[in-house]
Amino acid sequence: MSASFEALEPGDELEPVTIDLSSDFVREHAIAMDMNADRFTNDERAKQEGLPGQITPGNMSLGLLSRTLLAWLPGSRLQRIGTTFRGLARAGVPAKVQAMITEKDDDTRQVECDVWMENEGGDRLVVGTATLHFPSA
Q: Which one in 35, 44, 111, 135 has a CA-CA gap of 20 to 30 Å to 89?
C-alpha cells in the first residue's frame, strides 16, 4: 500500500512487509559494504564467536527500514531516521518491517513515523523514528 501526503493521518500503519534475510542476501550485502567479518558472512564461524549464527549488519537493517518507508510513501524524502538495535536480526530468518504515522504537519508537509523490524516471534529487533518530507505538489 502506498499513500499520498493528503491521505495520511496519525495512526495509519504500513502493512507489514516481510523481508527474506537469506544467508546469501546478508553475505552479499556485507561483502559489498566491505564488512567481511565472519558474523556477517559465515553461520558456523559466527557461532564460534558466541553468536546464535550469521547476523545481519546494522546498516543493512537501517537500509531495509528506509527502503520500506520510501516505498510506502512514494514522493517523500527521508529527512532523518534514528534507530536502536535491541536484538540480532539473524540471517536465514525472515523479518517483518512495520511503521506507523505518529504526527503529521500540514505546514511543513512532514510526517513522523515509528518504524521497527521484528522477527517471526514478534520480538522487535530494531526500533526507531523517522521524519519524511513531501515536496509541494
A: 111
Q: What is the enclosing helix (H) or strand (E) of 95?
A: strand 95-105
**Structural domains in the chain, sorted by start:** 17-21+57-133 (3.10.129.10)
* Beta-carbon contacts of residue 116 (< 8 Å; ≥ 6 apart): 65, 97, 98, 99, 124, 125, 126, 127, 128
Collapse the DSSP code of 79 into the 3-class scheme (helix H, G, I; strand E, B; otherwise coil) and give the result.
strand
pTM tops 0.70: yes
Cell of 76: 517523500
Residue labelled with grid coordinates 517523500: 76
Residue 102 CB: number of other CB atoms within 10 A? 14
